[in-house]
Amino acid sequence: MYYDAVILAGGENSSELKKIAPYDNEALIIIGKYPMVYYVYHALRNSSQVAKIVISGPTEALRNIFSREENLFFVDKGANAVESLASAVNFLNEVGTGSRILVTPTDIPFITVEAIDDFIECCEQQEADFYYPLISKEVNEKRFPGVARTYVKLKDGTFTGGNLFILRKEIIDRALDKALQLVERRKSPLAMARLFGFSLVWKLLTRRLSIETAEKRFAKVIGINGKAIISTYAEVGVDVDKPSDLEIAQKYLVDIDF
Fold it and tell me: What is the dihedral of CA 84, 14, 237, 218, to 10 degrees?
């Protein structure tokens, strides 16, 4: 199965990060020799399972970066990540071929072809509308010691959320409102749990919440069948959205040459 991919590159540079990386858009921050968005694009382009790629963001700047690339498309960003995604999906409805879309933000420059392909292969073993990766604390800290991440303690272990998603095109229109709420709460496990009701919050606080229970509640509240995929690749779970993250990225990626 081939997947069309969307890179969400419309995020504005945060005030703290902007102090050491003076770019208006996160996608344009230079890490090593390349803008941050290029690392994500390069990993997607080299995956044998990815067909068309659409980048939603500052189109003029992005076209200058990717002026020599083929089979790459651009759409203007929306007011938020969900609107940007909807714009890209509408475009893919016209030119795309697959029924499922791989979505990634622009701020995961550590991402690799191997991590992407592994996530896709794991998703294809499960039947769902929406797939979301989890990475254990042990895997994350072994690969990137000292990196600051938000972790949640579940019955199954301690995890951080990943930054790759796969979803069926048909679910997007009816799930947009809830998707926006999920995006707004993604950095706070407790705020995320509140969206799904008090019983789920209580189970989270008492560390009795399992992945299976969360999946069932997700299906009931959101109205789509979601599946958590445990990834063994820490590169899926580490993003760059604060100065300490950028310092680590500059350290790890300084010698990368595509």
Answer: -50
Scored b (16 or more CB within 10 A) or e, 123-141 reads beeeebbbbbbbbbbebbe
pTM over 0.85? The answer is yes
* Residue 29 near residue 14, CB atoms below 8 Å: no
Cβ neighbours around 151 below 10 Å, total: 17
Given CA atoms 250, 31, 2, 229 in this order, what sign does their dihedral have? positive
Spatial separation of the C-alpha atoms in residues 90 and 103, rounded to whole Å: 14
Q: Which among 139, 150, 108 is positioned nearest to 238, based on CA atoms?
A: 108
* Side chain identity, residue 120: I
**Pairing mode, strands 165-168 and 226-231:** unpaired
What domains does the chain contain, in order, with CATH numbers? Answer: 3-253 (3.90.550.10)
Summarised one tens digit per residue, pLDDT across range 33-81 is 999 999 999 999 999 999 999 999 999 999 999 988 878 999 998 888 8
Of 223, 227, 213, 236, the residue nearest 140 (C-alpha): 236
Question: How far is it, in rounded angstroms, from Cα 247 to Cα 11?
Answer: 19
Q: Are strands 165-168 and 100-105 parallel, antiparallel or unpaired?
A: antiparallel
With H, G, I as helix, E, B as strand and everything else as coil, classify residue 74. Answer: strand
Distance of alpha carbon 100 from alpha carbon 166, whole angstroms:
7
Per-residue model confidence as pLDDT tens digits over 220-242: 877 889 899 999 999 999 999 88
